[in-house]
User: Fold these one by one.
Assistant:
Number 1:
Amino acid sequence: MKIFVTGGAGFIGSHIVDYLIGRGDDVVIYDNFCTGQEIFIKHHFDNQRFTLIKDDVLNFNALKKAMKDSDFVFHIAGHADVRGGYTDHDIDLKQNFMATQNVLEAMHQLNIKNIAFSSTSSVYGDAILHPTPESYPFEPTSLYGAAKANSENYIYTYAHYYDWNAYIFRFVSWIGERYTHGCIFDFMKKLKADSSHLYMLSDGTPKKSSLYVKDGVNAIFTIIEKSSEKINIYNLGHEEVTTIKNIADIVCDELGLKKVQYTFEGGDKGWMGDNKFVHLSIDKLKQLGWEPTVNIEEGIRRTVRYLKESSFLLNAR
Ligand SMILES: NC(=O)c1ccc[n+]([C@@H]2O[C@H](COP(=O)([O-])OP(=O)(O)OC[C@H]3O[C@@H](n4cnc5c(N)ncnc54)[C@H](O)[C@@H]3O)[C@@H](O)[C@H]2O)c1
């Protein structure tokens, strides 16, 4: 198989690429490196089956040229900062929605019929049903969630028009090696500047679920190998949830910081568009035989250890 991976130099995309190269596929990464890191993929540079194209998904002609002869597209590139859309109303429209439509149109023009897409728990917004099942309606509270929901609808329609196989993954927050954004990252950046004090955007009570990256990649390929719908929509998450304050406690403990003073700067949400309780049902995924192997606390500890060893990343974003 020749697999095309947009965003293959990013946190999640680079782990997908490792898996694909490991199973013997030809892989083309298409990435503009706006947040991607060469260090995440450079161990493949000498591999004959690996191709890297540095360009933008919004550059349709370059995208279509690069995608030619691919069998399967992983569309993982995106603007992954949920917060940004409140102050920049165009960024999710362009980087998450229009970018996805470019990918779909290029696939159609090249007659490629398989797509996997990185969607998000943010499509459910402030869901009132927990754990939230896949059947819950789209109620996004951020333009990020809205753009991902619109992208899902476009994927659904292209797949329906042209008889494609589509895999739509609604992720909770991923943690683990190569993690470069999110609250653990923010906490470590702040603690690097001042290890005695930690300012939090919320009151510490928002409850979130997280998924360790290797369990996440395993879930993706379990779904692709075992799910047999034409359009396969799955939550990827964890049975556990934890509060933002508890995440901060684990980060401080793993860093060996004993007396950090917390200042809570907000209410039960960290920012406009944030969701105070994110817990997705993973019953559908578990029916395929998948289980997470790493609990959330251990995942947070591994993330902290990774960022300690790769502290240059704390300055990269
Ligand atoms: N990390 C999470 O917890 C999480 C949760 C839910 C959904 N997602 C989604 O998963 C995907 C990957 O997230 P991530 O955490 O790996 O983020 P990331 O920022 O590490 O990776 C995104 C990659 O896409 C590339 N990219 C971005 N815009 C591009 C463009 N216009 N053209 C070409 N390349 C472009 C970046 O350079 C980067 O390599 C995103 O679509 C994100 O919305 C992530």
Note: The pocket of nicotinamide-adenine-dinucleotide is lined by residues 6-7, 9-13, 31-36, 56-58, 76-78, 80, 95, 99, 118, 120, 171, 173-174, 180 (CB under 6 Å).
Number 2:
Amino acid sequence: MSKLEEIRTVVEAGRLRYVEELIRQALTEGCSPSQILEQAMVPAMRSAGEHYKNNESDIPKILAAARCMRMGLDVLEPYIENQDSQILGKVILGTVEGDLHDVGKNLVAIMFRSAGFQVIDLGVDVSEKQFLRAVKENPDVSIVCLSSLLTTSMGAMRQVVRALRETKDHRMLKIMVGGGSVTREFADEIGADAYSETAVEAAELAKTFLI
Ligand code: B12
């Protein structure tokens, strides 16, 4: 079994104690951090999700896989971080109110950091008020990223976009949305500036806003 396959297997099975060592071994063997993410960790989380959906798994198992993801991202983050000390822009990021999913959001944070953005991560279950306050307190923020994994939290996302548009803020704030429950159609409908299916693509797209 290749190192990437091993990582995929342990993350999917939620075996936390093997994650760090396997990732370090993969890096030593020459795998890139993005290969480890895209070819091992993200597919592992996706299959953990599929098992759960098909009733072949349960919440503790999903949580164990999510914990492995978090640990893996912590190990990889220093390797992905932007070598260039120049900051491209400042981003506010959070999962909207009522929603506690953070695996995808954390991935978005890492990809933005590695692309050269400074990220203010507000965490999960972030209310409209918290987003507005963060935008007000950070006059140099140019992009707000909202994540939602639940159909029941899509209303909260719509509300945050509306509230951000209604502020008497004269900045050209760009709003990006994503997460499992969000589609391009929904993003257009609520007036977001951009949607992307993956974290890597999101960071690339954000760079185009700065030109
Ligand atoms: C892990 C997980 C959990 C964990 C969360 C742990 C954690 N720390 O995040 C736990 C067990 C806590 C959980 C709880 C619940 N969950 Co859950 N969960 C999942 C699961 C299996 C995986 C999600 C995940 O991490 N995916 C991997 C990451 C990498 O993908 P991602 O988040 O989509 O992110 C990618 C993109 O979407 C994008 N992206 C993400 N955010 C953003 C933001 C921007 C701006 C951009 C541009 C891009 C972007 O980039 C990422 C990678 O490229 C999904 C199933 C699935 N297939 O998604 C269900 C799922 C999301 N959960 C679901 C449900 C129903 C629940 C619960 C209500 C279950 C319950 N009955 O209690 C609760 C809700 C709790 C709450 N209030 O939030 C449903 C949602 C259904 C729906 N349509 O609403 C799903 C789809 C499962 C299912 N098929 O039924 N869950």
Note: Residues 59-80 form the longest helix (22 residues).
